[in-house]
Amino acid sequence: MLDDAALAARLATDAGALLLRIRVELGFADPAALRDAGDARSQALLAAALARHRGQDAVLSEEAIDDPARLTARRVWIIDPLDGTREFSEPGRSDWAVHVALWQDGELAAGAVALPAQGITLATGGPSAVPARSAAPVAPAPPAGGGGPRLVASRTRAPALVTTVAEALGGTVVPLGSAGAKVAAVVRGTADAYLHAGGQYEWDSAAPVAVARAVGLHTSRLDGSALVYNRPDPYQPDLLVCRPELAAGILALVARG
């Protein structure tokens, strides 16, 4: 039987493969229909797989009715069947993702972020936990290159705070789609920080944060407090994922407004 990290990677990868097929089947003529099909069919795949492999666990998903039983469960899978639906429905874009994370006894215990259009899945647990098909193991993020830090931000609703922080640090803002794609950019070393102040939900960040923590990146709220999951209200106002050496400076800038 697959362990939790391997299962997260396998499910995220399988859902990603399905989403690629849906893109081919439906095309891009009707973006709304494509988004709806992607959300629904990826949710169905993940729900069925979790029921089959981890039937005793609770699930919190963007695409399912919230079951309050999760609040007394020891193990809760937090999933986003399609993160970045706008980008998924646009031809040529690869900055969309599938998120699968496990919360256990108060902490994120495993997670995987599939980037199907990029052909990779980043996962906790090391190489042995990652299915060989289209997934790649998480490796330590390489050092940042020359110049100021690169801050990834939403391509459609980036908060002004990101620009302010980037300017103060002598850095640049890099627009990207899904939260999973943004955190993956920091994990892979193509960006240095991701800060968000516009509000998200736990399924937007649980799997990306689990992967980021696995390689030693800083993760927190913008006030420096810990990110907490499986709360009664899954709304999450803000977050910061960055290289550890940048965290103090970014948090100080945010605190000063």
From TrEMBL:
Q: Mention one GO biological process in which this protein takes part, according to its record.
A: 3'-phosphoadenosine 5'-phosphosulfate metabolic process
* Needed cofactors: Mg(2+)
Q: Does the keyword Nucleotide-binding apply?
A: no
Q: Where is the composition biased (Low complexity)?
A: 129-138
Give me the reactions it catalyses.
Answer: adenosine 3',5'-bisphosphate + H2O = AMP + phosphate
Renumbered to this chain, region (Disordered) spans 129-152
Molecular function terms from GO: 3'(2'),5'-bisphosphate nucleotidase activity; metal ion binding
Query: Record-annotated residues binding Mg(2+)?
Result: 62, 80, 82-83, 204
Keywords from UniProt, A to Z, are: Magnesium, Metal-binding
Pfam entry (one): Inositol_P
Query: What Gene3D superfamilies does the record point to?
Result: 3.40.190.80, Fructose-1,6-Bisphosphatase, subunit A, domain 1
Record keyword Ribosomal protein present: no
PANTHER family cross-referenced by the UniProt entry:
3'(2'),5'-BISPHOSPHATE NUCLEOTIDASE 1
Name assigned to this protein? 3'(2'),5-bisphosphonucleoside 3'(2')-phosphohydrolase
Species of provenance = Candidatus Protofrankia datiscae
